[in-house]
Write a structure and sequence with these properties.
The complex is a heterodimer of chains A (about 325) and B (about 400). Chain A is an alpha/beta fold and about 325 residues long. Chain A folds into 2 domains: about 180 residues, Thiamin diphosphate (ThDP)-binding fold, Pyr/PP domains (Rossmann fold), CATH 3.40.50; about 130 residues, Rossmann fold, CATH 3.40.50.920. Helix content of chain A is about 35%, strand content about 20%. Chain A has 11 helices and 14 strands. Chain A has a 7-stranded mixed β-sheet with strand order 3-2-4-5-7-6-12, sandwiched between helices. A 5-stranded mixed β-sheet of chain A has the order 9-11-10-13-14, with helices on both faces. In chain A, strand 2, helix 2 and strand 3 form a beta-alpha-beta unit. Chain A is globular. The N and C termini of chain A lie far apart (about 45 Å). The relative contact order of chain A is 0.12. The model of chain A has no long low-confidence stretch (mean pLDDT about 95). Chain B is α/β, with parallel strands linked by helices. Chain B has 2 domains: about 325 residues, Thiamin diphosphate (ThDP)-binding fold, Pyr/PP domains (Rossmann fold, 3-Layer(aba) Sandwich), CATH 3.40.50.970; about 35 residues. Chain B is built from 14 helices and 8 strands. In chain B, the strands form 2 sheets. Chain B has a 6-stranded parallel β-sheet, with helices on both faces. In chain B, helix 10 links the parallel strand 7 and strand 8. In chain B, helix 3 crosses helix 13 and helix 7 packs parallel to helix 8. The longest helix of chain B has 26 residues. The termini of chain B are far apart. The chains are: A alpha/beta (about 325), B alpha/beta (about 400). Chains A and B meet through helix 3 and helix 4 of A and helix 7 and helix 8 of B.
Chain lengths: ~325, ~400
Amino acid sequence: MSETTYIEAIRLAMIEEMERDQSVFLIGEDIGHFGGAFKATQGLLERFGKERVVDTPIAEALIMGVSVGAAIRGLRPVAEMQFADFVTCGFSQLVENAGTFHYRLKVSVPMVVRLPSGGGVGGGPYHSRNPEAWFCHAPGLKVVAPATAADAHGLLKSAIRDPDPVVFLEQKWLYRREKGVLQSGDDALVPLGKARVAREGRHLTLVTYANGVPMAVEAADRLRAQGIEIEVIDLRSLAPWDHQTVLASVEKTGRLLVLSEATRTGSFASEVAAHVAELGFESLDAPILRVTAPDAPTPSEKNLEAYFRPNTEKLVDAVSVLMRY
Amino acid sequence: MAKAAAAKSSTKRKSKRSASERIAQSPFDLPEIPLHQVIDPSGKAVGVLPKTDRALRLRMYRTMQLIRLLDERMMILQRQGRIGFYGACTGQEAAPVGTVAALEDRDWIFPALREGVTMLYRGFDLETYVCQVFGNSGDVLKGRQMPSHYASKSVNVVSWGSCIGTQIPQAVGAAMAAKYKKDDVVAAAFMGDGATSEGDFHTALNFAGVFQVPALFLCQNNHWSISIPTAKQTASRTIAEKAVAYGLPYARVDGNDVLAVYGAVKEARERAARGEGATFLELLTYRIGAHSSSDDPRVYRDEAEVEVWKARDPLARYRKFLIEEGDLSAKEDERQRTELNETVLEAVKRAEARPLPPAESLFDDVYAERPWHLEAQRTELLEHLASHPKKER
C-alpha cells in the first residue's frame, strides 16, 4: 500500500469531509490559489469554489469570530492559522467566546482551528510555538495533536464531525517527514480522547504527543538494545486526554517520564505529571520527570534551537536517571 | 498603448499644490453627515414617517414602557442587595426596540450590554427574563452569565461575550452562513461607541465590506463608555464616518426617535435581503443613568449634560407623538403603565421565589457531552457538599 505524508493526510481529510458534508468550509489567509502557507489546502479552491474556501483579509481574530458566528448557524468551519503563533491575535474569540458559547447559550460551535505548530524549522519566536497548554486550560475547547499521518487524517475527520470547538495542532516538523498508510471510510476515523501505545514496554512509561513521538520511539528502540523496555504512549488528544491508558501503564512500569516540546512551566507535561502524582502515587517507584523545552522563547539560529529543543539524547539521560530507582 | 496614455493623463492631473497643502486637507473639510430624525424631541413629526400600522406602533411603545419600568424596579432590587449587578437601558429604549421591530423574527441579534431587551419585543416570557438577573433555576442560562447578559436561542438572541466588540465578527460569520445557506436571515450586531475602538470592530466591518454579507451594524453612540466620553474614544467627528473606510453604506440616526430607527433599520434590512450587503447605522442616544450598578457617573460627567438629554427622552417623545396621532389616549397610557408595573412586580416576585440551579449543573453544557474529567470533578464537589450538608445548595 502506498504511503501518504502527514500534510497530505490533512489535505485528504478536509477533501473527504467537504465532499461528505456541505456544511464544512475552509477559512483562512492565502488558503485559495496560494494553497495555504504549507500547501495544506492546495487545489481546494479550484475543487470546491470560493464560497467553501474563503480567503480572508489578514485578521486572525476575525477568522475566529466569523467561524464562531458561522458555526452557531450550523456550518462547520475549518479555520487555518498560517502559524500556530498567530492564534494569539484571535485568543479572545477562541478562548473566551468559542470555548464558552455552548455553556452560555447551549448552542454548539462545531469549529476546528488548525494550528501549524512546533519548532525545528528555524522559525524563532513567531513561527515555532507549541501553544497547547493555553487551550487545554480553557474549558469548552478540545485539543488534538496527532503524531502520525493516519492520526492526522483520522483525528482531523473526527474533529470536523465533533460538536465542540477543536484546536488541531499540526506539526510543521512532521508535515513532510512523517508518512503512513491511511484507512478509508469510517475505518479512518480516530476517536478524540483516546491514546495509542506506540511501543510496549515494562520498565518505564514515556508519555508524549506530536513531535515528541518520533523522538520517544527512537529512544525506546535504542534503549531496548540495552535491555530497557520503554512503553511509549502517544496521547493524540490533550483535552480531554486518556488518563486511564497512562495510569494503567504506570501501574505496570512504576516509572513515568513525560516529554513535550513546549516550554516547561504550566505545560501539559506538568498536568500529566500532577495527575499521575495524585492518582498513581502508589504505583510509582521513582519521581516523575519532564523533558521539555526551557522557559525561553524559541531561538531562530539552528544551533541554538537544537540546544533548546528536546531530543533523543536528553530523553536517554532522563531515562537513566529514573532507572537508578 | 492604453496604459501609456493613462500614465500620461495621470501626470497631467497631478496637483500643483505642495505636499504639505495636500496633507493639510482635513477630514473636517468633508460635508457633515446629516442626522436622520422623523419625530423631534417635542413629539412632533418632522420627517417622512416610515410605513407602520397602529398595532406595530403600540407594540413598540408598550415594549419601551415595559423596559423603562423593569429597569427602575431592577435598580431598586440592586440597591436593596437582592441582585448583584444591573445594567439599565434607561434613555436608550428606542434604539433596540426600533431595531428589533424592523427585523424579522428569524433574524439573529448579537447584543452588547443593553440590547437583551430585544427579547421582550419578541415575546420572551418576562418572568424567565427576570430569572436571568437572579441567576436561578428559571434562568435559561442557569446562573452562568452575569445579570443583564440575557440570551435565548428560542428568540435568536445570542449570549454576549463581555470582551468588548467580540460579537461583531460573530455576527458577520452568522451573516456569511446565511448567504451560504440562502435562507434570508440577517445578523444584527449591536455595539456601543466604545466598541468602535476595538480591533474586532474594524476587522468585522472590513470583512463585511469585502464579502457583502447580510449584516447590520448598529452602534448605540450613548456618549459615554463607562467614564470615557466619545471625544476621548475617537478623533472622528462621527462614528458613522468610520464605515466610509470599509466601503459600507452608513447613516446617522436619532437613536432616541424610535420611528427613525425603525425606518433606517427596515431599509438596511431590505438592502441586505436584496444581496447588497451590510449597512452601518450610528444611533445617537444618551445613557441617562450609570454605566451599571457599579459606578456613579457624577464622578466623571456634568449633570447639566444629563438634563439636556433628559429633554430628548425617547419614551416621552414617542408618547406625545402617539397621543397626537390619536393612537393612544393619556388615560389608556396611564392604564397600560399601571398594568405593566403590576406585571413587573409580579414577575419579580415569582422569579425571586425560585430556587437556585443545583450545584452540579455547573458541570453541564461545557461540552456537548460531559467528559471524564468533568465527571470526576462533579463527583468531587458532590462528595464535598455531602460532607458539609449546611453549605448553601
